[in-house]
Amino acid sequence: MKQRWKKIASLMLVTICAFSLTACGKKEEAAAYQQITDDMVTNCAEVSQSAVESLAGFDDETLNQMTANRDTFTRLAVSAWMDQENELGKYEEMGTPTTDIDREEGQVTVDIPAKFDKGDAEIKVVFNYSSDYDQMVPAYMTISEVETTGMKLSGAAVNTIMGVGCVFVVLIFLIFVISLFKYIGKIGQKETAPKAAPAPTAPVAAPVEEELTDDLELVAVISAAIAASENTSTDSFVVRSIKKVNRSKWQRA
Question: What is the pLDDT of residues 45-59, one digit of tens each?
């Protein structure tokens, strides 16, 4: 099994290198961005298609073994392929590749549309120009799912709900904080308000002294009247008390 895997991995790498080597052109003394020729771009697209077909032909066991390969491009490509197959299922077919050339950076990007069981994906292979070998060298490969209209609408709906929900949560929190202001004001009043002075007590009225002067005069007058009516002196009797008699009784007499 190990011998079989080594042969398959070697075949893949040899295929990639073979297509890359065919992109070699005549060296010029100009800058690196002037070295990328149309033939190199065409071969980058062909190498990318061959890499996709090779990955699609390997079984899961072989792919797992290839993740331990020392070649960076192969390791990244296999990992990206396995991750995307877990999400979108088995590979079915690829579309027509398109190329994007960045001559200032000396880079060529090949975009390949691909169809899987559960959806579509875009395979992107990036090549860098090597001035040492005067050829395009594969750097890395990525595979990303293509969002459909339904997926975009679903994502937009989720973002809208999350945004509105966050707004309502903040508003509820602000209402709760504002509702606490009345308690905060009362706490401040209790701490700063001066203590109320005790209510003044009503003064106790001094006991009224009985005016005994008028009573003595009244006793003397009454004693004189009794003495005159009895033809005797006031020394023969003593007035001990005076009681008020109801006026109606005098009227009846």
Answer: 999 999 899 888 888
Residue 27 reports pLDDT greater than 80: no
At residue 240's C-alpha, the angle toward residues 235 and 243, to 5°, is 130
Neighbours of 138 (CB within 10 A): 25
Nearest to 63, CA basis, from 139, 114, 8, 115: 8
CA atoms within 13 A on the CB side of 127: 32
Residue with the two structure tokens 């190498």: 47
What is the reported pLDDT for 187? 66
Tokens of 134: 């005067």
Show the beta-strand stretches assigned E in the chain: 91-94, 98-102, 107-116, 120-130, 135-145
Q: Is the pTM of this model over 0.70?
A: no
Q: Is the pLDDT of residue 204 over 60?
A: no
Would you give the DSSP letter of residue 234?
A: G
Question: Rounded CA gap, 123 and 45, in Å?
Answer: 12
Q: What are phi and psi of 229, to 5 degrees?
A: -70, -25
Q: Two tokens at 25?
A: 């052109």
The Cα–Cα gap between 43 and 6 comes to 25
Structure tokens at 94: 């690829």
Helix (H/G/I), strand (E/B), else coil: 69: coil
Is residue 72 predicted with pLDDT exceeding 70?
A: yes
